[in-house]
Amino acid sequence: MTEIPHLGNIHQVVTKAEHIGTQLEAVASNPEEFHPDVIFELEDGRVAAHKAMLAARSDVMAAMFSENFIEGSASLVTLPGIQRSEFREVARFLYTDQAPRVTAHTCLLVLELANRLVLPRLISLIERTVITSLNAEVEAGSEVHLEALELLEAAQMYNAGQLAAWCFAHIGQNYAAMVTSFPRVMRSLSPDNQASLNLSRWPPLW
User: 100, exposed or middle or buried, with CB in 10 Å at 0-12, 13-18, 19+?
Assistant: First the structure.
């Protein structure tokens, strides 16, 4: 019990951070059950959400929902080129600040949307998740050459510098094996990347 002037003794309830996280996870997982005020029309269906939660965590969303844009008063917002799976992962991050549930094979659509919404923290969390997963595969003796090739230029495009650097280093360290196994993919890299790899490849050109 805590005594407050003019109010007398009241019960003091403290909600632990993990309980708040669990509650927000429930909202993110089933937003339609918690009085949503906006529906997003996506490429493969609709997803409900709460404008206040999205706007509080994303400057792009805050601008979109302001009175300066039609979305500010709209209950249905169309986002072309976005799938429900990627939007839900980004929304889950905005609600809970939790790392997205992605792998090297599923991260690119989420990374693209994170970059589109200017969410540098989400991009960093995706990078950490994917790099940790790739390192674990390498340590276990698995080959991730193709994954590095497929991720490199997309990571560069979506401002995922740490992931791009990891992929670039992996390609350079395994250049001889990768140019033999994936010659067409290696030749499809941008001229700038090919020139940089020729300088950092192993074994080097003498």
Answer: buried
Q: Is 205 left (phi over 0), alpha (psi -120 to 50) or beta?
A: beta
Alpha-carbon separation of residue 22 from 15, 53, 74, 87, 167 (angstroms): 11, 16, 29, 20, 34
- Report the phi/psi class of residue 87: left, alpha or beta, with left for phi > 0 and alpha for psi in -120 to 50: alpha
SS3 148: helix
What span, in angstroms and rounded, lies between the C-alpha atoms of 151 and 146?
Answer: 9
The count of C-alpha atoms lying within 13 angstroms of the C-alpha of 26, restricted to the half-sphere facing its C-beta, is: 9
pLDDT digits (tens, 9 = 90+) for 46-80: 999 999 999 999 999 999 999 888 888 899 999 99
Maximum separation of any 2 CA atoms in the chain, in Å:
84
Query: pLDDT digits over 4-18, tens only?
Result: 455 455 455 555 655
In whole angstroms, give the CA distance from residue 52 to residue 113: 19
CA dihedral 92, 94, 58, 16 (to 10 degrees): 170
- Alpha-carbon separation of residue 72 from 20, 33, 67, 104 (angstroms): 28, 22, 5, 35
